[in-house]
Specification:
By secondary structure, the protein is mostly helical. Helix content is 71%, strand content 0%.
Length: 209
């Protein structure tokens, strides 16, 4: 069976997001089943929303690969827990990789959907695929989702999606466009964290009731 470029990105993204969810679960002292569920929801949450909105069969209900991949991620965290826990940037690294990979796969799946969609819809679907899983993860962790905390997170997906379509407009193939998109998302996240870049925070008046 021939493995496609999108399938490779899908595997990397699934593993990375599952590890990020399981890694946070270990900090909250979840049991193994709870950690597996958080990792699975982080990995499939965004893609599930995307498929529901596109009106196509939900991807993980047709292939056990995603369940197995999350189990491998859990095993990885168990075997290398000491190393992963002592590395403060472990969560950020895996989360950023997953964000980039899923942004690309979300765009690609939208463009190959039975119903044709404009480029801006594909960018939105890529953003949802990349960022929504992290929202579910943070809710499970009883935290305010990262995309609502002023960080450059979902915006990195949008910028990456714009870079994808700019590459297509310049005549590059989808593989090159996908690589540029993923690299753009990763670079944007790293620079935003490195230089403390964030979106303006909306501040309202405190209630006096």
């Amino acid at each position: 069976m021939q493995i496609t470029f999108v399938q490779v990105l899908d595997f990397i993204g699934t593993l990375a997001f599952a590890v990020s969810g399981i890694r946070l679960s270990s900090a909250k002292h979840f049991d193994l089943f709870g950690a597996y569920i958080v990792g699975l929801v982080t990995a499939i949450g965004g893609g599930t929303m995307r498929d529901l909105m596109l009106g196509v069969p939900i991807f993980w209900m047709q292939d056990a690969f995603y369940l197995i991949c999350t189990a491998l991620a859990l095993l990885w965290v168990i075997l290398f827990s000491k190393h992963l826990i002592h590395q403060n940037n472990t969560w950020f690294t895996f989360d950023t990789i997953g964000l980039a990979m899923f942004t690309v796969t979300g765009i690609e799946k939208t463009l190959t959907a039975p119903t044709p969609y404009p480029f801006w819809a594909a960018i939105i679907m890529g953003t949802i695929t990349g960022a929504a899983g992290g929202v579910f993860r943070d809710v499970f962790m009883n935290q305010v989702p990262l995309i609502f905390r002023g960080e450059i997170y979902a915006l990195a997906c949008i910028l990456g999606g714009m870079a994808y379509f700019l590459c297509l407009a310049l005549g590059t193939g989808s593989v090159t466009a996908g690589l540029v998109c993923g690299a753009f998302v990763i670079t944007t996240r790293i620079l935003a964290v490195r230089y403390h870049l964030h979106l303006p925070v909306l501040r309202g008046e405190d209630s006096t009731d």
